[in-house]
Design goal:
Helices cover 37% and strands 15% of the residues. It is α+β, with helices and mostly antiparallel strands and 286 residues long. The chain has three domains: 71 residues, no CATH class; 75 residues, no CATH class; 93 residues, no CATH class. Helix 4 runs antiparallel to helix 5, helix 4 runs parallel beside helix 6 and helix 6 packs antiparallel against helix 7. The structure holds zinc ion (ZN).
Length: 286
């Protein structure tokens, strides 16, 4: 979960009271401008719409105000399904990890990790198995490296936003993901599939960079400048694909090249505006 910083537009203060729908629209706009067009939880690009999330999720206001700025984030419709599942809303805001307040991702001691897992993907309809195949899918996993408290928060966050599809679908001990036919056919929850596609796109990207490095026998003029262009193109691909934590994870696993990660995904470029690029927190070895 991408760590973020929210910045109010220069001409706005949290004391402003424009009021009504006009203010609500302005808040939406300011959130997108500040954080980029991504869901704050699953990191998917928001498509065509965005919905604000008041941290006190039981109350879902029609309109939001700049006074609530500290409590607002962007959320996609898939992450927002919890609103229809009362037992998920029993969790308090304090029990969860918030990407604008907690260390939600780092390379070395992250409370949330991204893992490619092999699962038996079973499509079923009213108890009957329609199909099954082995699939590789990227799961978001709670990790204890950052301590017990953050582990609990990470676990609750995955549960609350159902970041790995509906929890009851996944039988971790059996390595099975049992998905109802309607969910499978309509791709009702696309987050895990897109996250996985992004994982393989990131692998593809790093392999191209490695190929370029291998082809460099010293005879290519301006190789450094060309390599920089390729890295910029990868950064742009990542910007379109979203799933920032996946890019960081794959590139780190494949290269250990912190300078490359800084340049491509945590620089001060526009690509990931809203990123809290506190390099110490993101990159510090423990
Ligand atoms: Zn989302």
């Amino acid at each position: 979960m991408r760590p973020i910083i929210k910045t109010l537009p220069a001409n706005i203060s949290t004391d402003d009271t424009i009021g009504g729908q006009k203010e609500s629209n302005a808040v939406h706009h300011a959130l997108i401008e500040s954080l980029g067009n991504y869901c704050s939880y699953c990191e998917m690009p928001l498509s065509g719409y965005h919905v604000e999330h008041l941290k006190f999720h039981a109350a879902w206001p029609e309109q939001v105000t700049f006074r609530q700025w500290d409590e607002l984030l962007l959320i996609c419709n898939d992450c927002r399904t919890h609103i229809r599942i009362p037992e998920l809303n029993d969790l308090s805001a304090a029990a969860m990890l918030w990407p604008d307040k907690d260390p939600s991702f780092s390379l070395f001691n992250s409370p949330l990790k991204y893992e490619l897992r092999k699962v038996n993907y079973i499509v079923e309809n009213e108890g009957e198995i329609i199909s099954q195949e082995m699939k590789e899918l990227v799961f978001v996993v709670a990790a204890k490296d950052a301590g017990e408290v953050l582990y609990e928060k990470a676990f609750n966050t995955i549960t609350h936003f159902q970041l790995n599809m509906q929890l009851e679908f996944y039988q971790e001990a059996k390595g099975e993901l049992r998905v109802p036919l309607s969910v499978h056919q309509q791709r009702l929850d696309n987050r895990m599939f897109k996250r996985t596609e992004t994982w393989f796109d990131a692998l593809d990207s790093i392999n191209r960079l490695k190929e370029a490095d291998q082809a460099n026998d010293g005879s290519i003029p301006n190789f450094a400048a060309l390599r920089k262009l390729l890295v910029n193109q990868i950064a742009l691909t990542a910007w379109w694909a979203g799933n920032w934590s996946v890019w960081m994870t794959v590139f780190y696993q494949q290269t250990n090249d912190l300078e490359l990660l800084r340049t491509a995904f945590a620089g001060n470029t526009h690509e990931f505006y809203g990123l809290n690029n506190d390099h110490d927190a993101l990159f510090r070895a423990q």
